[in-house]
Amino acid sequence: MPTSIPLSDGSGELLRYADFASQFVASRHVDVWLPPGYDTADPATRYPVLYLHDGQNLFDPAVANTGIDWGVDEAVVRLMSRQNVPGAVVVAIWNSPQRVLDYMPAAPLTAAPDHPISQRFVANCGALPLADGYLRLLVEEIKPLIDATYRTLPDAPHTFVMGSSMGGLISLYALCQYPHIFGGAACLSTHWPIGEEMLVDYFGAAVPRAGSHKLYFDYGSVNLDALYPPYQERMDGHLRKAGYKHGRDWLTHSFPGADHNEAAWRARLDVPLAFLWEAV
Q1: What is the pTM of this model?
Q2: Rounded distance, CA 38 to CA 178, Å?
Q3: 158 pairs with which residues across the strands?
Q4: How many helices (H) and strands (E) are present in the chain, helices listed first?
């Protein structure tokens, strides 16, 4: 049974499945946020679901990496007010000590283990990626529990995935590997340099057909984010060739002056949420 976790601003209800066990990857906490009004809403009311990575950084500054959380609950409440919608169920999956192994897309590296990018990754991280197992945790273990326990809209058009940096990569990988599960992915400050052009070109060929999903990307201009524009421009080119229409089923935003940290992602979280929610 989950444990109730207090929220400082009282927006909604946060529940924790502590040390959620998986047969595929290391155990970790999984938090579930229910929007205000969930308990008193008409029992027929069902909610879209947003799955986010690096879950410890999303709701509580006391456990966030930099002492600043994303304020996801506050952002969803703002969206509820602006769009007059009942909100969403938010599932926040904490990372593990093997974060890079969990979040690095596996298919392009395992398909070419002798490629310099693959060899560099193994040399730096000690093994090939575990992302396929991490996605099985998400799709085969967490999502069935969420859909069985809460009043969700379980179909792909109402199921989204979001993350930043390496979390951006695993979000895009989730959508490409499970396009029948996820209808949209938001990738903030996507850490393309870890796989360079090899990784970008893999995703350029792997994205679902145009018109069936929503993709959001962004980047800042400070520290790590300063490295991202050439790779993102390459990815944008792939999307155009695949028939994706900017502003309709794909959006890339630049945020000059934005750094690579939770404060920056918090400041612009409303933008990807609004874009994804246009599909609901």
Answers
A1: 0.97
A2: 28
A3: none
A4: 11, 9
Enumerate the domain spans of the chain. Answer: 3-277
pLDDT in tens for each of the 280 residues of the chain? 899 988 876 689 999 999 999 999 999 999 999 999 999 889 999 999 999 999 999 999 999 999 999 999 999 999 998 888 889 999 999 999 999 999 999 999 999 999 999 999 999 999 999 999 999 999 999 999 999 999 999 999 999 999 999 999 999 999 999 999 999 999 999 999 999 999 999 999 999 999 999 999 999 999 999 999 999 999 999 999 999 999 999 999 999 999 999 999 999 999 999 999 885 5
Spatial separation of the C-alpha atoms in residues 114 and 202, rounded to whole Å: 16
Nearest 5°: the CA angle 240, 226, 129 is: 75
Q: Does domain 3-277 have CATH number 3.40.50.1820?
A: yes
Distance from CA of residue 43 to its chain's centroid? 28
Q: Strand (E) positions, the chain?
A: 3-5, 13-20, 28-34, 49-52, 89-93, 159-164, 184-188, 214-219, 250-254
Residue 201, classed as helix, strand or coil, is: helix
Q: How many residues does the chain have?
A: 280
